[in-house]
Amino acid sequence: MTAAATTTPFSATTTTIFSPTTKTKYTLFTFKPTTRKQLTTTLYASRRPSYVPNHISDPNYVRIFDTTLRDGEQSPGATMTTKEKLDIARQLAKLGVDIIEAGFPASSEADLEAVKLIAIEVGNPSGEMGQKVLAGKVAGEVGGEVGLAGNGEGVHVPVICGLARCNKNDIDKAWEAVKYAKYPRIHTFIATSEIHMQYKLKMSKEQVVEKARSMVAYARSLGCNDVEFSPEDAGRSEREFLYEILGEVIKAGATTLNIPDTVGYNWPREFGQLIADIKANTPGIENVIISTHCQNDLGLSTANTLEGAYSGARQLECTINGIGERAGNASLEEVVMTIKCKGELLGGLYTGINTRHIVMASKMVEEYSGLMVQPHKAIVGANAFAHESGIHQDGMLKNRNTYEIMSPEDIGLFRSNESGLTLGKLSGRHALKSKLFELGYDIDGKELNDIFWRFKSVAEMKKVITDDDLVALVSDEVFQPQIFWKFGDVQVTCGSLGLSTATVKLIDSDGKEHIACSVGTGPVDAAYKAVDLIVKAPVKLLEYSMSAVTAGIDAIASTRVVIDAENDQTTTLATGQKVVRTYSGTGASMDIVISSVRAYVGAINKMLGLKKKSN
Amino acid sequence: MTAAATTTPFSATTTTIFSPTTKTKYTLFTFKPTTRKQLTTTLYASRRPSYVPNHISDPNYVRIFDTTLRDGEQSPGATMTTKEKLDIARQLAKLGVDIIEAGFPASSEADLEAVKLIAIEVGNPSGEMGQKVLAGKVAGEVGGEVGLAGNGEGVHVPVICGLARCNKNDIDKAWEAVKYAKYPRIHTFIATSEIHMQYKLKMSKEQVVEKARSMVAYARSLGCNDVEFSPEDAGRSEREFLYEILGEVIKAGATTLNIPDTVGYNWPREFGQLIADIKANTPGIENVIISTHCQNDLGLSTANTLEGAYSGARQLECTINGIGERAGNASLEEVVMTIKCKGELLGGLYTGINTRHIVMASKMVEEYSGLMVQPHKAIVGANAFAHESGIHQDGMLKNRNTYEIMSPEDIGLFRSNESGLTLGKLSGRHALKSKLFELGYDIDGKELNDIFWRFKSVAEMKKVITDDDLVALVSDEVFQPQIFWKFGDVQVTCGSLGLSTATVKLIDSDGKEHIACSVGTGPVDAAYKAVDLIVKAPVKLLEYSMSAVTAGIDAIASTRVVIDAENDQTTTLATGQKVVRTYSGTGASMDIVISSVRAYVGAINKMLGLKKKSN
């Protein structure tokens, strides 16, 4: 940062924003239009040159762009809280993702706020953000808390990207959210296929080109030097028109051109040809990065993405576990592991991903999105390395490579029998902390304490505490939203001989106990009705599922529910559709009724948290 | 059949076999080696020419080979009973699958029996089997029941295939199982990659070629005119060696050459090149069919399979829902729908699949295998057509094709609001039967009656009975194994304040009631312990999961459990590994404890059924 930045005269309005992870209140500045450009140029543009690590200039380096928090989060039931998004963004930074698409700021206030926090906390190196906020302070405000920000010492700093349709409001909001990152990016898009232009946009080709050109220029005019443009439904767009519009947006300042197969209709050779044609025919393409974004409707997204890379794309958009609208997106772990295994055949391509963080990222996204992966999911499914499990293995496999193309450790999968520590009921807090660290969780303070007491109570009943048991407890204690209602007690009587009756005790945020009882068609129905009597928020249960986390009849049960609130706020999808937000919650216990109530209370807390924030 | 067949002199030993679906006892004949060849040639070979429907001679016709019942069924926890396999085989015939790999007869007695029944009942046109069994009867036995067999009027008759390693015992067993089909096939395989030959087989190249050549010849010598050969781990085999061994087995009589990417290590261009090279360099290849078999370890199985077809393969091996060992196989629905959507780009390729039966096949395989598909699974996942659901849709989508490349009806997906009938508590048996038929279930007699009463009891408690509710009830009543123990009653008391206690009543096959009670760490633990006290079979609970089948707190809960029996019989995988069989069970109820007990009793019944058969 140059000294000039702090002395430039400008006027600004301030807002404060609270980070649930670092418990820090930030004061943010919205600069008046006339001075904004001058300031942002000084504040951000001067940093851009430093964002070209050596490997990036290597033509064989492939950037990984993760859109789990945008395309993934907008799947039905996958709504995440700001804290959850921050956790995932941090994990993505650990994983070494080059660009994090953190959200679609114009879709809702909550989304804007989440992207902003990710930009501040994950989009900056440790300490540097404090300086930046202070720089603001000098000009706009005196006093207030400035905490530790940034994403930790020595951790890679990803580009933070916000999505925007081709209009000023969307782009303003995206910039408002991402500009606090060290490397901010605006990603804007407009449809270019006949069918979309005619039926959705009701615009002519000329109007679409003009809109794209002017909006890319507008994004640049705000001071954002990293602008990505996507011609939506490129897979079904007329080839010549694509070259034209892409050429125009390059002239207007776009730095990355993303080619989406929006409806997942291409097959690999076809998509590869599309990328090759764009590379060969678009004026100015040599100065920008070509990117892919492949939907999975025919199950071909990973292969299409790889063909894109083979044909010249150097940024690949994907999501953890392949989640996303409909059949989802190319899955990061499949794309990255194929490039790792077959990079040579792909022309020497490589990525900057630290694959050992894949399993933890996968589990975290499963937890927070509520979208479970199937047992036979490639790389991260429960059966993917099942022949390794020892149960189903005799001495016939003399060499591990006979049926294994990568080792579980490559993706960060360690098994109980491989890690040294075994926990029992006499294990102390330190052993628990070490074990959790081994499993990829860096947990301390009150959270460690809470898990420790839960662990103790389980250890009283079970002889062996497995890694999976611990993961379930972490999920129940740590991966939880802000608490409005806390689980107290539950007691039920049920069965085929009579009506189920449940009594529930919840504790509110002031520590006051509330008790209610209800009858229902089953124990969960009865207990949930009792919770409703206490919470008094109109809620509809959309999904309910449960699984035992380990084998054995005394296993911990993990429950997941998805609810929506009647008349709740909506959010806007990239497709232009408005959707009602839904909230998921998880709970774990050795008793399925308790675990069900914990999950339900968790989902209600998540809903109340988001509701409160958007008011 | 020629008259000669019934008059040929031979001696034979007979065995009887009972079909749980048609309730028919068949008498089967094992002919003595010296006369077997002569007979089978007359009985089966004479039929072969009729198995070349016109489209098959079209070079653009792609055969679909389904291995759900072999590769899929050998996944952890996916064990199916004979009745379940028959149901699936019938559905595959409806779907128009060209070849059904019905099992691996040498792996266990139960598998051999299942393949045999599928050969008889699904591998023959309606009525004809009666004739065949009668033909046998003339020579070997007088009297006994001969029922209606074959797979129904006007239904396509698939080839029935059995897997065998390259040894006489495996091939004998495969032939013993498939020879009753109108179009029987033996599929034999041996590994050809350096790593497999060296570490698994401990054989030289010359030995491997000799083994393959002689065993294909042996299969032909039994009278099997349709022999498929697979060089296992072809994806990692030396190219020149592949041409050599494939050329040799063609000379020995192989009619289909299947090229497996056993460890899922190829990427599409690489696998396509492998197929193209084999096509260009293998002597005699023009007289046989090339086939693909792609594992999904990198998430590329569908794309690899399509590239195989593009490069000349005319048989594609796949499974419903893509299930299979580790990350599974190419998924039939993805391969077929891509060929349907993009056949023209693939050079005019097409299949004989009736895609409208895909959804039912997918649901049936999910039910029976216990391998759930993820919500974002392409084609058949719950979210695959989610933007169509009406809940998440506003008026913005003026044209359905903007975000949809195929219609849900194409794969047999109909929604409540689309189908005419709505059921309520006053609906009669006939309305229920019509509705179930609409959903793809052709149910009658006692099964219809049982579902009707379950339907009535649910209708008493729920205002609207959705399609999903009905599917859950069908799954609970119809998709159930033979009954040894029947659910009677359960009553539990549980909660966070004290130990859970359950009382369970089961009814044995003689109608006698058994009651037991137990305490446990939760209601399910307590109830399962009470069941164990009654059943007295050593069982270990491996997996437990539950989900609500519809939104709303009064939804039906569907539970699935997987158990194994201590010291139970094992089966042999194609990899040579021995695995312990595991059994899944499902149950549905509005009370999660009842649904849990039903599922557990179902799994125990499945286990007892298979145990009994193998004794």
TrEMBL record, chains A, B:
<dbReference type="InterPro" id="IPR013785">
    <property type="entry name" value="Aldolase_TIM"/>
</dbReference>
<keyword id="KW-0479">Metal-binding</keyword>
<feature type="domain" description="Pyruvate carboxyltransferase">
    <location>
        <begin position="62"/>
        <end position="359"/>
    </location>
</feature>
<dbReference type="InterPro" id="IPR013709">
    <property type="entry name" value="2-isopropylmalate_synth_dimer"/>
</dbReference>
<dbReference type="InterPro" id="IPR050073">
    <property type="entry name" value="2-IPM_HCS-like"/>
</dbReference>
<dbReference type="InterPro" id="IPR000891">
    <property type="entry name" value="PYR_CT"/>
</dbReference>
<protein>
    <recommendedName>
        <fullName>2-isopropylmalate synthase</fullName>
        <ecNumber>2.3.3.13</ecNumber>
    </recommendedName>
</protein>
<keyword id="KW-0028">Amino-acid biosynthesis</keyword>
<dbReference type="GO" id="GO:0003852">
    <property type="term" value="F:2-isopropylmalate synthase activity"/>
</dbReference>
<dbReference type="InterPro" id="IPR036230">
    <property type="entry name" value="LeuA_allosteric_dom_sf"/>
</dbReference>
<dbReference type="Pfam" id="PF00682">
    <property type="entry name" value="HMGL-like"/>
</dbReference>
<dbReference type="GO" id="GO:0009507">
    <property type="term" value="C:chloroplast"/>
</dbReference>
<dbReference type="Pfam" id="PF22617">
    <property type="entry name" value="HCS_D2"/>
</dbReference>
<comment type="similarity">
    <text>Belongs to the alpha-IPM synthase/homocitrate synthase family. LeuA type 1 subfamily.</text>
</comment>
<dbReference type="InterPro" id="IPR054691">
    <property type="entry name" value="LeuA/HCS_post-cat"/>
</dbReference>
<keyword id="KW-0432">Leucine biosynthesis</keyword>
<dbReference type="GO" id="GO:0046872">
    <property type="term" value="F:metal ion binding"/>
</dbReference>
<dbReference type="GO" id="GO:0009098">
    <property type="term" value="P:L-leucine biosynthetic process"/>
</dbReference>
<dbReference type="InterPro" id="IPR005671">
    <property type="entry name" value="LeuA_bact_synth"/>
</dbReference>
<dbReference type="Pfam" id="PF08502">
    <property type="entry name" value="LeuA_dimer"/>
</dbReference>
<keyword id="KW-0100">Branched-chain amino acid biosynthesis</keyword>
<keyword id="KW-0808">Transferase</keyword>
<dbReference type="InterPro" id="IPR002034">
    <property type="entry name" value="AIPM/Hcit_synth_CS"/>
</dbReference>
<comment type="pathway">
    <text>Amino-acid biosynthesis; L-leucine biosynthesis; L-leucine from 3-methyl-2-oxobutanoate: step 1/4.</text>
</comment>
